[in-house]
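README: folding subset

This subset contains proteins for which both the sequence and a predicted C-alpha cell string are available. Records are stored as plain text. Below is the entry for Membrane protein insertase YidC (619 residues), shown exactly as it appears on disk.
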Amino acid sequence: MDRNNLIGFLLIFLLLIGYTIYESQQPRPEPPKTTQATPAPKVAPSVSETITDSATAKRLYGDFAAAGFGEAKDIVVENKDVKITLNTKGGKIKEVLLKNYKTYDQKPLVLIDEKSSSRALRLPGKTGDINLSDLYFTSTDAGGVVKQDGDSIRVSFRLALADNQYVEQIYTIRGSGYQIGYDLKVNGLDGVLKNAPVQLVWLEHLKKFEKDTQTSQMASAINYYTVEEEFNDIGDNSVSVDEKAVEEPIRWVSLKQRFFLTALIARGTPFSSGQLKSSVPTVVSNDNIKVLESNLQLSLADLKSGKGHFDYYFGPNDYEIVKNVTDGFRENVYLGWPVIRIVSRFVILPVFHLLESFITNYGLLIIALVLVVKTILFPLVYRSYMSIAKTRVLQPEIEEIKAKHGDDMQKVQQEQMKLYNQVGVNPLSGCVPVLLQMPILFALFSLFPNLIEFRQKAFLWANDLSTYDSIIQLPFNIPFTAYSHISLFAVMMTASSLAFTYYNSQMTSSAAMPGPYKTVQYVMPVVIMFVLNSSPAGLNFYYLISNLVTIAQQLTIRKFVDEGEIRRKLEENRIKNKDKKKTGFQARLEEAMRKAEEVRKDADSKKGPNTDAKKKTKK
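--- output ---
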C-alpha cells in the first residue's frame, strides 16, 4: 500500500465517518428546559369537560346538543394481529394492541390509548366548529373476532339529527393485517354546516417501546406523501420543534416511531392540506418521549358525495409489510440515500430475506449475510490486493527515485508516474475496488438500525440486536455522545479493524508510508468505535465478522499469489510499452506537472539565490 493507496483509504474512512455521523441514530443532548411540550389540539369543548345541562350543550354544539349526553360504550374488534377498542363517545378508536409484539421490558405493546393519543374530528358549523369527538354516537354492532382471512367485521357509529341528517363513521377490520378501513359520511346537513373544510386533528404522545430512549426520539417523525408522489418528513433526527404547513394535497400521513407506525391513508379524495408539528416534551417519560401532531383538512363536499374512504394503519414499520400498503408507503422504512436505497432494495434486502427463510438465529444469519456479500465482492478484493502487490514489487525502484530526487517532490511524482506508465500499473486501481464496495457498506449501515427483524432478537450476550449491547456502564457520558456505556461488539469490531490495519502494514514497506499516515491508519478505527458504540449490536457484529473474513480472504490470496510472476509480467509490460505512444490523458497530466514545476522554480527564483541553501540548513 503506497501513499496514493493510503490517501484513498483515508478519504474513504473520512467519508464513512461523515456518513456515519449524519446517518447514525446518535442521540443529541437533551433539549433546553425552555423547550415547551406541544399542547393538545384546541377543540371546543376539551375532552375533559363534562356537559351537565342542556343550555351548555346547546351553546357548544348547537343542533347536535342532544348528543352531548350519553354513555361511553366500548366495542372490541380483533383479528390475529391487532385488537382494537372502539368507543361510542366520538365514534373513535380508543386503544390499539399489537398482538405479535412486546415492549422492550416484555409488556403488551399498546400502540395507542386514551392517555397517549387523541383525535378531534371537527365539523364547520354555521355558529362555530363542532367537535364530534366529544359527542355520543349510537351503534348497534357488537364487534367480535375475525377468524378467517377472507372475512371482516364492520362497526358503524351514527350521529343523527333526523333520519336523513347524520354523520356516520364506519370501521372495517379484516381477518389479518394491520389496516383498518374507515369511511366518513356526512348526509343532509347543509342547513347546519357551512362550506369549509372538515378538520381531523391527531395528537400522539409517543410511548417508550425500545430500550434506547434517545435513539427512539431521533427516529420518530411525521412522514407524508403528496399526490405529486413526493415523500417528505418533519422531526426526523431532531429534538427541536419542527412545524410545517403542507399546502398541496396529501395522500397519506404517518406518525412514525422507530419500529411502529400509526397512519391515515386517503383511499378516495386526498386531504386538501395539513399542518404538521414535531417536538420533544420538557419532561421526557416512558409515556411521552416525543410529541407528533397533524391537522388534516378534508373536503366537506367529498364527504357529502360519499368519497370519504380511508384506511388506518396500526402496525410494525416492517418493509415487507408496508411496501404493499399503498404508493410510497415503503418510504417509512429508511433505506439510505437514493443510490444507497437501490442497493438496499435490490441487493441486500432480497439476500437477507432469502437467508431469513431458512436461518432462524439472527446472529448466524448475519454471519451468512457476510459470507454472501464477501463472496460477491471477492473479485474487487482480489483486484485491490493485486494492485497493492504490484506496488510492493515496484517498491525498490520507488525508493531509488526518492533517494535520487528526495528534495524535489514534484520530480519524485513525475518519475513515479513515468515508472507506473512503463510497467502498466494504475496507482488508483487499488482504491477503485474499495470505492465500489462503499454503496454496500453504506446500505448495511442504513439498514441495520431500521430493520424490525432484528428487534428483540438475542445473540450471545446481546439481548437485542437492534440496539447497543452494554457490558460496562460508566459514571459519566463518553465525550461527544449522550451515552455512558461500552459496547462489547463495538470494542471487538475495533480490535478486528486494528488487526486488519496491522496486517496491511506488514504487506507494505515501512519506508513507503509517511509517518503521519502510519498514525492515522490506527487512529481511524478507534474514532469509528466511538461513533458506533451506540449503534445496533447487529451492525457492529456484522462489521466484526466482515473484518475477519476480509483478513482470511487476503491471507488466502497472498498464499496463492506469486510475486515473482508479478515482477515478470511487469517487466514484460515495460518492454511492450517502451515505444508505446502516450495517451492523451498521460500527455495532459505530464504537461500539467511540467507547468507546475516551472511555476515552482519561478517562485523559488524570486525568493533569492539562497533559497536552496536555507532549505538544506533547515534539514
